[in-house]
Amino acid sequence: MANNNIKYILFDFDGTLIDSMPFLEKNAITLLMHHFSFSEQEARTKYRETTGLPFVQQMEIIAPNHTNNQIAVEEFENMKLELIYEQRPFNDALDVLNRLKEKNYLLGISSGTIESIIATYLKKINFDIVNDIMGWRQGFEKGADHFNYIIKKHAIHKSQIIFVGDSLHDAKRAKDNQISFIGRVGLFPKIDFENVIPKCPVIHELTEIYERLK
Questions:
Q1: Residue 32 to residues 83, 112, 136, 150: CA-CA distances in angstroms?
Q2: Which domain holds residue 168?
Q3: Same structural domain, 51 and 129
Q4: Looking at residues 92-98, what average pLDDT do you find?
Q5: CA distances from 140 to 30, 36, 114, 126, 145 (A)
Q6: Which of 9, 201, 2 has its CA nearest to residue 99?
Q7: Which residue from 23, 3, 51, 62 is spatially nearest to 166, judged by alpha carbons?
Q8: Which of the listed residues 32, 58, 86 is the one where a domain comes to its end?
Q9: CA-closest candidate to residue 80, choices 100, 102, 101, 54
Q10: What is the pLDDT of residues 161-197, one digit of tens each?
């Protein structure tokens, strides 16, 4: 992956910049067990297979047309809204973003979380140094919508963007849109990312991104 021309680094939010995936997964598993009678392992597997998508879309895949989907989505989003501000960024996240900013990279967040929640969270922790915050809303979501917004707003080419994410759906979005990608190992190991993108570069800590940009 040639990185000499990179101008924009786009980060996923949950599980990439903030350590919120254990909290989100726990809540999702509880709801899936309660409303759909999945075992704990079934619920965990189904959640992980669809993570990276907005929860409303996850439920459409996990339990298509199920009458309990709406209430599960509402409960999940309410829990997230109430408790997301208690989740902490990874220890190296702010230092990494500041250093990248000093190196004149444009920075953005692309997430399946509602944009206002992300913006409020970042302000609460004095973390709002990114150029763009792109959350989910109907008709504007992670993938082509967010990539095209960046390309148009900043007058750059897709080859000048790197997307950093912790889910296989993040990797697939990047691949489908010819965007360079770095996988953050956490929920998924390196081999899973490589099954989506052959020889996919990965990091375990955000500080490793410097090596990937050389």
A1: 19, 19, 22, 35
A2: 8-19+88-212
A3: no
A4: 94
A5: 28, 29, 11, 26, 6
A6: 9
A7: 51
A8: 86
A9: 54
A10: 999 999 999 999 999 999 999 999 999 999 999 999 9
Q: Do residues 13 and 27 share a domain?
A: no
Quote the tokens at residue 67. 């009458």
> Is this prediction's pTM over 0.70?
yes
Statement to judge: residues 195 and 163 lie in one domain = yes
pLDDT at 36 over 90: yes
Whether residues 46 and 123 fall in one domain: no
CA distances from residue 100 to 10, 125, 136, 200 in whole angstroms, order as listed: 11, 18, 25, 21
Tell me: do 172 and 114 sit in the same domain: yes
Within 16-77, strands assigned E span none
Cα–Cα distance, 196 to 208 (Å, whole number): 21
Helices and strands (DSSP H and E) totals, the chain: 10, 6
Instruction: Give a yes or no: residue 62 inside a domain.
Output: yes
Residue 59 and residue 122 share a domain = no
